[in-house]
Design brief:
The protein is of the alpha/beta class. The chain is about 40% helix and about 15% strand. The strands form six sheets. Strands 18, 19, 20, 21, 22, 23, 24, 27 and 28 form a nine-stranded mixed sheet that branches. It has an eight-stranded mixed sheet with strand order 10-11-12-14-13-15-16-17, with helices on both faces. Helix 3 crosses helix 12, helix 4 packs antiparallel against helix 10 and helix 28 packs across helix 29. The longest helix has 25 residues. The N and C termini lie far apart (about 120 Å).
Length: about 1000
């Protein structure tokens, strides 16, 4: 408390006048002490009844008792204004004129207190000195509103005269139905309020808003196509609209879930419903709960028809329960920690006519009958003549003696302590006529005297908002939600930029979007393992209007078609054969170039072989095969990142036993194989001809003939191109690998040059060509080769490049002076087996004869394999008769991947049961399978860290036939498993 002198301001902080009497100062100080205790605990809140005390001999006797009573009433009004300025929620009911009885008038007072505006609205009240009292939104009174709604429905049905009690069960049911119908018309709201407006259901927010929220959440969680989400929303709205009218048709949606309904059914103040009606609400039983609520409403309506104290106490109970809920400390919004001052009800001049005294008694009666504490503090003034209308104090509890003004504050404090000590005894049922929650404070008349201006004081208030008010508030919550939504949105955008399959809250981390530059344009390639809804075909298709270069290879199936077929096989395996299958990962190039200049034709052809093996195995064998598809990007440029996703997935899926594919030899191949080795995964490659991988990694198994051995077999052809006694010049033309990372061309150049020197050719310095935006730049290198003079133009060129670089080379050799009139032999490795030599396909110059190796002699193995019959049965677009010369099978890519998958499965299912990845790795060295598409797959002759024997190979000659066509001739070959060496005679170029 601070004392102000006459030079200070005339008003206190907050804008209210200073307390004008000593009694006002002391009463205000006592209220502030209760407020201070309310911040940290839940103190007992009395009903402070102020009245004029007895006169003493020293008291001035000039004023009448009526004038002193008016001073006490003015004191209560003055305290109320001070508390408003301090930030307290204060209410003063409008005096009631309705009702013939005191209890009915008191009930009318309580009904008026159910208007949140009477307790102050949200916002801040600023004083003249700039200080403000913060407030945390308006109170809510759902329980009191429910009681008021039932009371209004009863009044609407009965009018001013209560309806007689029904005499028959049918009349009782009819009265109950009439009550529910009236409540439905009121929408279970008090009649005549600003929020009750009759009208169509679409304008009733209590019904439409919950339905909209539920429908919105359902659409948000659906995560499906927009039309499906729209159907879900419309369906839910229709369902909730039907639920609104069935089976009850008389209550808002979710009435049984509201807090007032739960209180309505669980409060012990109301008597349980008689008969066999349900008496509880259940979360998942709306019909059962509705019947319970309807039965309780009918029971309460009977009580309200009787009027009297039961009606009043029911209103008071609802009011006190709402206030208690409004100050619940550990609610979801922590409102009890934000509202640090209790609500206060001021009753200046309480009397019988207004119903105020009956209200005071009813509050005391309800508190005595209930075990919960409520925060309401009531401050009332009673005229001296009406004091007797309150209860007489029981004997043994003396009145506080009248004291001098200097000790009035101590008297009030001692009276409060005495009241708390005796509260338990005074609430006993035997103490009839008592008002135990009343703390009566007789104020000496001399303390009511007006103080001089310089003696008037302002009582300090600690109304600063607590930390929880600042931290857990609507602005902070809005900011937090905004930050959360922004962060989720930002994270979702990042996920959409980094991952192939990303939503708002979830992301598939088994595949990622990788960026690269191909053909002069930046691309986003989906790289990794396809799980969930990921399909690489969604990003591998050629852009609209751009022809797919893969169409020239006549592959009758598409990437998307193969993915869908494999997915259906996987679903059947996991659904019907849980615990009885193994999983193999196919890893290959399944991306397309940005302008359609590159197609995943190799990956599509290999994937067809993997699917064919899966379909045959799952039809004929007990241990089933599940296949996961993994993409290493365009030309396998991101195979190391793909390996990371494979190993991460395999870490939590023990059914993964190995990897098939990795058919392109790059600088990153060693790193990729090492990652798979460290994860315990064996690799069976069909087309990767790297010779160093089986020598370095024990988990590497390949069906492809290694580069050094291929070059040695091509030496049989080169030996026939040498003329005895003359000097034949040869040259290696290789792709520059500094930027491309293509190790295959480097290995081909190395072993091709070594072979030419061994065959006694004069080997000219190596020429290289670069890739410009993914396209070969042949002009400069070929000009230097052909412009060096006729004596130095090589007659044999070993081409260490890729199949896509062949056409530019042939065009240059056929048009460049110095070369176009010379016969040139071009030799190259197995990558040329993917070429399709025909009109509109890959070409050969008139002056060039091309010799290349192929990884499989399919024609020799055709008679001893079921591969082609199985292809006709399971692969789309293949009609009888299929054979080794079928355009889409002749390259051997499909056959090799089929055989690699069968070999890995054989090791993973040895012993007629699924094996783990460790035993699969070990079992691979015992695999010996005949009758495969390429011959016999024999890994028993695959020693650790050394090259094995028995690879398949075929040497092919391609040249012009003199009629504008292209002639492709097999010179010689071996099926897989055949270790007999080739000879020059067998591989004669004179065929």
């Amino acid at each position: 408390m601070a004392r102000r002198d006459s030079n200070g301001p005339a008003v206190c902080r907050g804008g209210h006048q200073r307390m004008s009497s000593q009694a006002g100062i002391d009463v205000q100080h006592h209220i502030e002490s209760l407020v201070h205790g309310f911040r940290t605990r839940e103190p007992l809140m009395p009903v402070l009844v102020l009245h004029v005390g007895a006169r003493t001999t020293d008291s001035p006797g000039g004023e009448t008792t009526a004038a002193l009573d008016q001073r006490v009433a003015s004191l209560v009004a003055e305290v109320r204004e001070g508390q408003k300025a301090h930030g307290s929620r204060c209410a003063s009911p409008t005096p009631a004129t309705e009702g013939p009885t005191e209890a009915q008038r008191a009930a009318h007072l309580v009904r008026g207190l159910g208007d949140p505006r009477r307790w102050g609205g949200p916002g801040r009240r600023s004083g003249r000195d700039g200080r403000s009292a913060p407030r945390y939104r308006r109170y809510a009174f759902p329980r009191l509103r429910l009681v008021r709604a039932i009371h209004d429905a009863v009044k609407e049905l009965d009018g001013d005269t209560p309806a007689p009690a029904p005499t028959t069960p049918d009349a009782e049911r009819a009265q109950a139905r009439a009550l529910l119908d009236q409540l439905a018309r009121q929408r279970w709201r008090p009649a005549g309020g600003s929020r009750w407006r009759p009208g169509p259901i679409l304008f009733d927010t209590a019904r439409v808003l919950p339905a909209s929220v539920v429908a919105g959440i359902a659409a948000f969680l659906a995560g499906v196509d927009q039309w499906v989400a729209l159907a879900v929303v419309v369906g839910l709205l229709v369902f909730l609209a039907v639920l609104n009218y069935w089976p009850t048709g008389r209550a808002p949606i979710f009435l049984w879930l509201r807090r007032e309904s739960r209180w309505f059914m669980t409060t012990t103040f109301l008597l349980p419903v008689s008969g066999q009606q349900p008496s509880e609400v259940r979360l998942l039983h709306p019909v059962h709960s509705w019947r319970a609520i309807a039965a309780r409403a009918d029971d309460v309506a009977k009580t309200l028809r009787e009027g009297g104290q039961a009606q009043l106490q029911l209103h008071v109970l609802a009011l006190l329960e709402d206030l208690r809920d409004n100050h619940r400390r550990w609610s979801w919004d922590l409102r009890g920690l934000k509202r640090t001052r209790p609500p206060m009800l001021f009753l200046p001049g309480a009397d019988v006519d207004s119903g105020s005294i009956a209200l005071i008694k009813a509050v005391s009666d309800v508190r005595s009958g209930r075990s919960e504490l409520d925060p309401l503090l009531i401050v009332a003034s009673v005229a001296a003549a009406d004091v007797a209308r309150l209860d007489q104090r029981p004997s043994g509890i003396p009145l506080p003696p009248a004291v001098a003004p200097a000790t009035l504050r101590d008297t009030i404090r001692r009276a409060h302590q005495e009241w708390e000590r005796n509260l338990r005894v005074r609430q006993a049922p035997s103490r009839s006529g008592a008002v135990p929650w009343e703390l009566r404070l007789p104020l000496p008349p001399d303390t009511l005297a007006q103080l001089e201006e310089q003696r008037r004081w302002c009582v300090r208030s600690q109304s600063r908002p607590g930390p929880v008010r600042l931290v857990w508030s609507l602005p902070v919550l809005s900011l937090a939600v905004l930050l959360l939504v922004a962060s989720l949105g930002y994270r979702a955008l990042q996920w959409h930029d980094d991952f192939c399959d990303a939503g708002i809250l979830t992301v598939n981390r088994d595949s990622r979007l990788m960026r690269g530059a191909h053909g002069g344009a930046s691309t986003d390639e989906c790289v990794g393992t396809a799980t969930g809804d990921v399909r690489f075909a969604d990003r591998a298709a050629a852009p609209p209007g751009v022809p797919d270069p893969g169409a020239q290879y006549d592959i009758p199936w598409t990437l998307g078609g193969m993915e869908d077929r494999i997915h259906r096989q996987n679903q059947e395996v996991t659904r019907d054969h849980a615990g009885d299958y193994v999983t193999v990962v196919y890893a290959g190039p399944l991306s397309s170039g940005p302008q359609g200049e590159s197609s995943p034709v190799k990956g599509v052809a290999e994937l067809g072989g993997v699917y064919l093996a899966q379909a045959v195995i799952n039809k004929a064998y007990d241990v089933k095969l599940r296949v996961l598809v993994a993409n290493g990007g365009l030309d396998m440029d991101h195979q190391s990142a793909m390996a990371d996703t494979i190993t991460a997935y395999a870490a939590h899926d023990p059914t993964v036993v190995g990897v098939v594919g990795l058919g392109r030899d790059l600088e990153s191949s060693s790193r990729t194989t090492r990652k798979l080795r460290d994860a315990g995964l064996a690799v069976v490659s069909g087309t990767n001809s790297a010779e160093y991988l089986p020598r370095t990694f024990p988990n590497w198994f390949s069906l492809a003939a290694p580069d050094d051995w291929q070059a040695d077999q091509l030496g049989l052809v080169v030996r026939q191109l040498r003329t005895p006694g003359t000097t034949r010049r040869a040259m290696v033309l290789a792709q520059a690998t500094e930027d491309s990372g293509d190790r295959y061309t480097k290995e081909q150049a190395k072993y091709g040059g070594r072979m030419l020197r061994r065959e006694k050719f004069a080997v000219l310095p190596r020429r290289t060509y670069a890739l410009d935006d993914g396209k070969p730049e042949m002009r400069g290198p070929v000009q230097r080769i052909c412009g060096s003079g006729s004596a130095k133009v090589p007659s044999v060129i070993y081409f260490a490049g890729r199949v896509e670089d062949l056409d530019p080379l042939m065009k240059r050799l056929s048009t460049e002076p110095g070369c176009r009139d010379r016969q040139i032999s071009v030799l190259t490795g197995d990558d040329l087996s993917k070429a399709v030599f025909r009109r509109g396909g890959d070409g050969v110059a008139d002056n060039v004869t091309l010799y290349h190796a192929a990884l499989a002699d399919l024609g020799a193995a055709e008679a001893r394999t079921q591969f082609y019959e199985d292809a006709e049965s399971f692969l789309p677009g293949i009609s009888e008769p299929a054979g080794a010369e079928s355009p889409f099978l002749a390259s051997g890519q499909t056959a090799l991947s089929h055989d690699a998958t069968r070999a890995l499965y054989e090791a993973a299912s040895e012993g007629d049961g699924p094996q783990n990845r460790v035993t699969t790795w070990v079992n691979l060295r015992s695999v010996n399978m005949s009758g495969m598409a390429t011959g016999t797959i024999d890994f028993t002759r695959a020693p650790l860290y050394r090259a094995r024997r028995g690879h398949g190979i075929e040497l092919v000659r391609v040249r012009r036939d003199g009629r504008g066509g292209i002639e492709s001739t097999k010179l010689c070959g071996r099926t897989a498993g055949n270790t007999e060496p080739l000879t020059v005679k067998e591989c004669s170029i004179e065929k």
